[in-house]
Amino acid sequence: MVVDRTPLDPRFNAYRADLADAALKPFVLARKYVMPTLRRCVRGVLPLYEKPARASLQISEILYGEFLDVFEERKDGFAWVQSRNDRLVGYIDMAEAKLSEGIAALMNRINVLRTFIFEAPNPHAAVLDTLTLGAFVSLDGEEGGFYPLTSGGYIFKHHVVPADEVTQSDYLFTCGQLLHTPYRQGGRTPLGIDAPGLIQLALDIAGLDAPRCFEQQKDMFGKKLPCHWRDVVWHRGDLVFFKNPDHVAVMAGGYDMISACPDHMEVMIEPMAARIARGSTLIAAGKPV
Predict the structure, then answer these.
(1) Taking a C-beta distance cutoff of 8 angstroms, is the pair 270, 192 a contact?
(2) Are strands 136-137 and 108-110 parallel, antiparallel or unpaired?
(3) Measured between alpha carbons, how far is 236 from 232 in angstroms, rounded to an integer?
């Protein structure tokens, strides 16, 4: 019997030298193993940090309605958690977080770029929070053109669709809707988004699963180019992957592509040649089907 000794990636597996997920006990060494506590995020957007400090790198975000496993609540006010959505492990600031112990049925999703949670079923009422495209919501009836949320507050009913309904199968169209969205490291919403976050969100709305990180997306969708990039017949919707730095974009037609571009700090359309001229190397491409 051959035993796989490949180390587990700590970005997607909750283990440290001092503490680890009890489910990983057969595979990793730690001084202590714990069973996680399941919680549901009821804040519009919750930052996920690489380290327990707000000045640390933001690696992703947990959206309203998504579930997370909590492994440790620290004295410094941070918690060590793992997202159930894309398995990323990191830290949340409990002062920023709103977590619910209630495990609600998430049968609906937000189908507009942004919408508000109102204090009352009235567009003139105080705004409690902002929800973004793809966020899951649990509803509690209907009142005057608004849906009450089980966690409190009201959202406009026409901004919600059943979670299993694909409202936009054209993921390039969704990328186009997000043009000029500001770039944000670790972002995955129309409030601010990074390159793999844009691809993940657009594919998610199209009913296609996509991992969160560049390397994962490249491994899942990318293939080595058969020839020089200028000789490839590019198709609308092709995903293209670059190194120096890591970057992913989607072809919009011809040699133009859409991406969340850190060089220009926004989601934008640019010629492939412009990125290559800045020193990037095109290493793979593919279609997410």
Answers:
(1) no
(2) antiparallel
(3) 13
Alpha-carbon torsion (132, 136, 138, 143), positive or negative: positive
Q: How far apart are CA 95 and CA 92, in angstroms?
A: 9
Q: Identify the bridge partners of residue 21 per DSSP, sorted by sequence position.
A: 34
Buried b (16+ CB within 10 A) or exposed e, 194-211: bbbbbbbbbbbbbebebb
**Could you tell me which residues come within 8 angstroms of residue 43 by beta carbon, excluding any fewer than 6 positions away?**
64, 96, 97, 98, 129
Tell how far CA 54 is from the center of its chain.
19
Paired strand residues for 154: 118, 148
Grouping H, G, I as helix, E, B as strand and the rest as coil, residue 154 is: strand
Structural contact between residues 225 and 211, judged by C-beta atoms closer than 8 angstroms: no
Q: Are 197 and 214 in contact (CB under 8 A)?
A: no
Kindly report the number of other CB atoms within 10 A of residue 263's CB atom.
15
> pLDDT by residue (tens digit) across 53-106?
999 999 999 999 999 999 999 999 999 999 999 999 999 999 999 999 987 778
**Its pTM surpasses 0.85:** yes
**What b/e readout covers 28-64, taking b as 16+ CB neighbours within 10 angstroms?**
bebeebbebeebbbbbbbbbbbbebeeeeebbbbbbb
